[in-house]
C-alpha cells in the first residue's frame, strides 16, 4: 500500500532499495506523540501517516504464545473496521470467530465481551503503558488469563501442601508430647510404686523385729518362772549348829 502517491506534494523521497513496508516495520510506534512534522525524517513521516490512518478505538491481538503470558496487539486497519473484524467478531486474529464467516457458521451466536487491557510494552528501549480495548470470545478470554490462572492454581497447591506439612508437624509434635507425658507418668508411677514397696518392706522388717523381740521376752519370762518354781520346791536350810539327839 503506497501512502504517498506520485502526485504528493511532500518533498521527502523514499530511500532507494527500501520498500514502504520495511520502513513501517522499522519506524512504526504503537502510540505516537505529537511530533512536529518539520522535525521528522521521511521514514518517520511515513510511519506517522500510516499511524493516522489506523482506527484506534479497538485493537486486535495475537494469542499464539498465550501460555507464556505474552501476546501482541495492533490497531485495526480500514478494511477491518469496515468488515467489523475485532469489534463485532473476536479480536484474536487466530480465532475462527475473528471473521464474519466464522461467526455465521455457528448455530448459536457466540458471546463476545469487550475488555480493557493494561498493555505494557518496550519501544525504542523505553517502557510504555497503555489501556487498550479488545473484544474477545469466551475461549480467547481464558487464553488471555491462562498463565495467571495457572500460577494461581500452582500457588494454591503449594499453599495446601505447605499447610498439610505444617499440620503433620503439629500432629507429630503432639504425638511426641503425649509420649513424653506418658513416659513421665510411667516414671512417676514407677517411683511411687518403688517407694511404696520400700515402705512395705521396712514395715515388714519392723513387724518381724517386733515379733522376734516379743518372742525373746516370752522365753525370758518362762525361764524366770521356772527358776521361781524350782526354788519353792527345794528343802529349806536351818541356821546354827547340828541338833544332837537324846541318848
TrEMBL record:
Residues 151-247 are annotated as: Disordered. It comes from Sparassis crispa. Residues 151-163, 201-223 have a biased composition (Basic and acidic residues). This is Protein FRA10AC1. Residues 224-247 have a biased composition (Basic residues). InterPro entries: Folate-sensitive_fs_Fra10Ac1. Pfam families: Fra10Ac1 (PF09725). The lineage of its organism: Eukaryota, Fungi, Dikarya, Basidiomycota, Agaricomycotina.
